[in-house]
Here is the input.
Amino acid sequence: MKKTQNVRRREVINHIVSVLSGLAALVGIFFLGWILWTVARQGLAALNLDFFTKLPAPPGSDSGGLANAIAGTVVITLLATVIGVPLGLFTGVYLSEFGRVSHFGRMVRFTTNITTGIPSIIVGLFVYTLLVVPFKHFSAYAGAVALAIIMLPVVARTTEDMLALVPNALRESALAIGMPRWRMILAILFRAARSGLLTGTLLAVARVSGETAPLIFTAMNSPYWMKSLAEPTANLTVTIFNYAMSPFDDWKRLAWGASLLIMATVLAVNILARYLLREKK
Amino acid sequence: MIDPALPLYGDLADPTPKIRVRGLDFFYGDQQALFSNDIDIAPNRVTAVIGPSGCGKSTHLRVYNRIFELYRDQKAKGDVLLNGESIFAPTMKLLELRRRVGMIFQKPTPFPMSVFENVAYGIRLHYAVPKSELEGRVEEALKGAALWEEVRDLLHKPGTALSGGQQQRLCIARAIAVEPEVLLMDEPTSAIDPIATAKIEELVDVLKKNYTIVIVTHNMQQAARISDFTAFFFKGYIVEFGETRQIFTNPKNKKTEEYITGRFG
Here is the structure.
């Protein structure tokens, strides 16, 4: 008799817990949906040909676009990728292939984990003192370096994880035909793990494409097309920051448009990354 | 009694051993896994290495091409001579040693590239072969591994698309493509089906004309079928080494007898 009650009690608790966790999940999805919906609704109104082709216009003229900021963001992100991804890849190679058990390897791994958690505004300030103050001007390359610093540990850790998934038997069979170690890594391991490595790179790009704080101190912003990497450079996130807080309706609309553009890009990159990873399996 | 001037396999094969192992100890960290192993590997013969799990068969084999050096905590002491030259000598080039001493692993491990590239990669690595000659060399290696007829139309398919047995023969083709002298086989048939196993056993019999073969096997019938000499390992020691027929019909050591009659394993 007692046993049955016990079972019923457990069933009730089980029921409550599953309802509660279901609700919690719903709340999460609800807010995500709300954000997506709001950004899409407000942003779509701003997206037209002018948005992609014209320079920002004075408030009230209702004819400006964010072409320079789109270009600036693309350039800064590409440059950050060119700097951050190779460094991250080779850090990951070191962690997985050479420093798996060494003291220095453990230290690098620990530092990499810490770096992942550094608030991006601090990275921005750091690069500000390093590359902006001494040269006395904001620049696209300073912005790219800040983003690269944020990308590096992300790429390093995914690289390490992806290489760790490659069975040792494959390493041994490459070495066994007389392949030098560096070649085994570049020709065999990178090839075996290529979709994972590409995914790591894409996720790192997605991770930095929404970063604002590191760019405020480094690339800043500009109403003009960029002429060199050594000048303040327009970019989408700082533009959102500036325009969204302005009192002008047309600027606010552009900020929504920029938000939608970033969100859609990040979403697309994430979906692509997932797709690539699934391909592998 | 064996004449000390003779190799450890006596007068049953070429008196100059291909590989001569003397006083080989092996350590995983502080744990000793091999104890003063002495053995001679006869040229152009098949030497089988048998013994229960964990007795050091693979460990012993993995010294011959120094593949164990990939792992920092593994150490070998003693000497292994290839054609009379120590594989640990400073003059011995590691990459050249591994070209001369090929290895086939338990699980087939094709590289993540096409069938053709799997074989061509090693050739390009060691030889400056003009493109026109490369195809012929790849074909030759695939024929040598008795795989050509099955893959001649699949050369540009990924190596992993082949069946398990074919993949293992692809690994053999990859190994013989760089013209080694010795082939080490570490339980090469334990992960594949009986028909594919029979093919590889036939192949081993053909390959010994050109290569010296050392094969680790769990399967005593296999050792009896394909090998000329057999070494019985137990707890890191080479307990008995001799002609395969003698080991299986008239073992001198009690442990060997117990193992081959299936009393433990």
Remarks:
- Chain B has one domain: 19-260.
- The longest helix of chain B spans residues 131-144.
